[in-house]
Amino acid sequence: MADDENACVRNIVKEIMRECKSKKIQINKNFITYFTKLLLINPNWGIGDDFFSQRQNVQTFVSYITEELLNNADHPKLVTLKIQFSYTCNLEHMDYFIQGNRKELKWRLRSLEDDIVRMNNVEEKELVDSLYKKIVYYITFVTGLGNPAKSKVYEESMVALKSIFDEDEVRQFSTLTKHEKIEQLDHFSKVVGGIRLFNKDCDKGGEGIANLPALVTEANMIIKEGTEQILLFIMEKVNELTTIVDRSYVLWPVYHNFYRMRLANKDELTKLDLDIEHLKDFLIFYRQYELITRKVLEEFDRIYERIEVIKASMRKLMKIIHETVYMKLAIPVGVVFPLFEQLWEIWTQFQDLAHLLSRISVILSNTEACVRQMEYQQVAIDNIIGNVPPMTDAERLQRNSHVELSSDKEGVTVLKSESIKNIEFVKFEYLGFCCWKLVETNGALIPGNPMMGIVVYQGKNYVFSCPEGFHEFLKDPQMCINGVLDLVRKKPHLIGFFQLKEELESIYNITKLVETKEEIKMCEDRGIQTDSNQEEPHIDPKYMWNIWDLKRQALTLANISAAQTSSTQTNKTGSKNSVRTQTYYTKTVEVQTKKDSYTNVPRPSVFIYGLRGRKDDQQFKIDLTRPVEEK
């Protein structure tokens, strides 16, 4: 089943990339695969394992993605997906990146390593010197301790190598097998690297070796400070957008104890050329940006802790090495070489952290570039906010902090935040956003307030931003949860934000998660008032106020309507009127009916060129249809 799904995704991605190429859309193929998999979680696309029998649905799907990439490349929802993809591929797989960096260094030195390995049975001094020089260059490049093209760096590396590998041993080295030579090179690199680091610590060398621990510490601090400034900028946008969206939707009491959310300032938003759906997508983007930035800051803290641990390990090992070699003319190889190898392994951890910080810096720069591409209507947003400063998340928590929630429904319990130790480590569903408002507003991220109470349902924790939302959730919790899942299906950039991919895949066979209910039409009393003194005062003398007078008049009019007036004429009438009538003879009229006719159309004939004998997919049609006149 998984292979069939992967084959289906590959075929769809191949078609999308072909369409993008024809429309000159430059996009990463891996991102298209990521986007396609998120969209296919929604079963309403009608695309299953049978790719070819659902051709029409596939074409609709491909057309949708192509149009999104062409027309909405800078839309917040698509940029949100891009930064999610970048974070997933980079920050969540840093160990893989570090291993890949080491493999890339080995690959770049592969030609030099092959030259060393291919030199067999070397006897002449010129060839021996050439092989020894190549080994020195290889070790210096692999360790990353300076540039061997500089004479001082080369001399230090050569002296360190001679202390463990004499030139006379080169001839014996050339007789080894390929696998043995590679193992020897790896061993020499570690020992020589450790020796050069020890010499630097003793102030007897260290040419070309940077003070990597200090540089990594300083780089971590500088990048962290820049990231904190980015977070402040993000929170300004988050507070602005959350304030606008929260003010735009108001509670609407449909009937007793039944509430909905309604957009209240639609005219004001339209006047300022603002789209509430666009603002909600912007809010999702900046919340995702905030989440990633906070995780990056946590990564900086972990890097700092690792740096301190590595520094302590290096100082401890240096002390052991100094004690081992102090005042000794000869030391057993089995004693000191493992220490040098351990020292080199510790140093490689500093190198890995340096590459890691460089990678994080590139990711943050690329994300900032994506932010600058989007059109953020700052002037219109400032106008709608007005002079009242945007409300922060902390201020929003204080708004309903005095409210206490309680539940008498079986299966739903409410815990007080004061009764929970280390509440900052409690995992809230939907990242602590109010799920009821999320559904009612079609995607508005309004933070819940745990100070009102933490609602526990089926072992999961939920928080709400208002007591009305909690009471609506209490009526049917599962319907509210299904409403969130249905919303996330329609908004794929929320799947990665809420981490709901596995849950959505588990309910893939359920096409309809929420049953739509018709709104009940209720009667209500309304009062109106007209303008006074529109006409001059007038007293009707026939006005009757008694209802029985009106009934009596109605009966009289009813009797009159049932009466009949008739007249007769006698022979003694003085004059008689003659009445004349005129008739018309029937007239014959002719009409014309439709006439049968025919047309002759040419017979279509099309030849598809390139179906056989070609290795690419460049086929095209040749029209062989001939006009009717030639037949």
Keywords:
631 residues, mainly alpha, 4 domains, 3-stranded antiparallel β-sheet, 7 strands
How would you sum up this structure, described in words?
By secondary structure, the protein is mainly α. It is elongated, with a radius of gyration of 42 Å. The protein has a three-stranded antiparallel β-sheet with strand order 3-4-5, with no helix packed on it. Strands 1-2 form a two-stranded antiparallel sheet. The chain has four domains: 2-73; 109-201; 212-385; 393-506, no CATH class. It is built from 22 helices and seven strands. Helix content is 56%, strand content 5%. Helix 7 (125-143) crosses helix 8. Strand 4 and strand 5 form a beta hairpin.
What is the gist of this entry?
The protein is mostly helical and 631 residues long. It contains 22 helices and seven strands.
Sequence-ordered SSE layout with sheet pairings:
Blueprint: H1 2-22, H2 29-39, H3 55-71, H4 76-89, H5 94-108, H6 110-118, H7 125-143, H8 151-162, H9 170-174, H10 178-201, H11 212-248, E1 249-255, E2 258-263, H12 266-271, H13 276-325, H14 333-373, H15 378-385, H16 393-399, E3 412-415, H17 435-440, E4 454-457, E5 460-462, H18 467-475, H19 477-490, H20 493-498, H21 501-506, H22 547-562, E6 606-609, E7 620-623
Antiparallel strand pairs: 1-2, 3-4, 4-5, 6-7
Helix pairs in contact: 1-2, 1-3, 4-13, 4-14, 6-7, 7-8, 7-10, 8-10, 10-14, 11-13, 11-14, 11-15, 13-14, 18-19
